[in-house]
Amino acid sequence: MSEVLVPYGDTRGDAMVQVSFTLPMAHSKVAEGAAAQLAGKMGIDPALVVHAKPLGPDFTFFVVYGRVNHVVDPTQVVVVERDYPLLSPKEVNAAIKRRLRRRLTVVGACIGTDAHTVGIDAILNIKGFAGEKGLEYYRELKVVNLGAQVAVPQLVERARAEKADVVLVSQVVTQRDAHLLNTREMSAAFRESYPSDKRPLLVVGGPRFDEKMADELGVDRIFGRGTTPGEVASFITSRLAPPRSTT
After folding, report:
1. Residues 200, 166: Cα–Cα separation, whole Å
2. Nearest C-alpha neighbor of 172 from the set 114, 222, 228, 211
3. How many CA atoms lie within 13 A of 172 on its CB side?
4. pLDDT per residue over 71-111, tens digit each?
5. For a Cys staple, 148 with which of 87, 115, 191, 229, CB 3.0–4.6 Å?
6. What positions carry a catalytic annotation?
């Protein structure tokens, strides 16, 4: 029998949680009551409004603290586990050089109207992220960073021109599920433009993606928040320059 878990607030096992949200109401006692009512419907009981701040004349931001009756069973959690070894830049370079005998070409971009390049730059630029150098640092990777607001047809055209092995797409803007719509459009465009055995590896990333949706969105991998350049480089290597079978 698995051990269920409860949230930790002030003391272990007290089931206390803190949530924040905005209501389209001017700040007032009625608004605070509405926030407490909403928290109650979410299963927080008792619910204490510990912070309320007006956001202009017609909106209020709330922080609510209280106890929940829900428990968590870790054995029922479904996640995408890393199914490839983490490699150092030296190991990535050696694997590509030894197994492919040529450099891999990586084309990256933010597509649609997304102008947030922090994510794609963190993976591609040599300065990198979280103490790791970006893919430009890898000797056996040729990196083409197209930047922000790249139209899907432009991305496909450039990928073909560069003979891309990998296409990396970053999506931060998520209003009305724009990241999902853009990703589906992108994956469909590449499938229409390439034979199935010639299509580049399609990799997307962003803070609001569900990593389990790769098949649904038509891509080969989804990376979420906190992904490092080393993880991306290791994945690319595992797919495009895997160890040769000894059987």
Report:
1. 5
2. 114
3. 12
4. 999 988 888 889 999 999 999 999 999 999 999 999 999 99
5. 115
6. 127
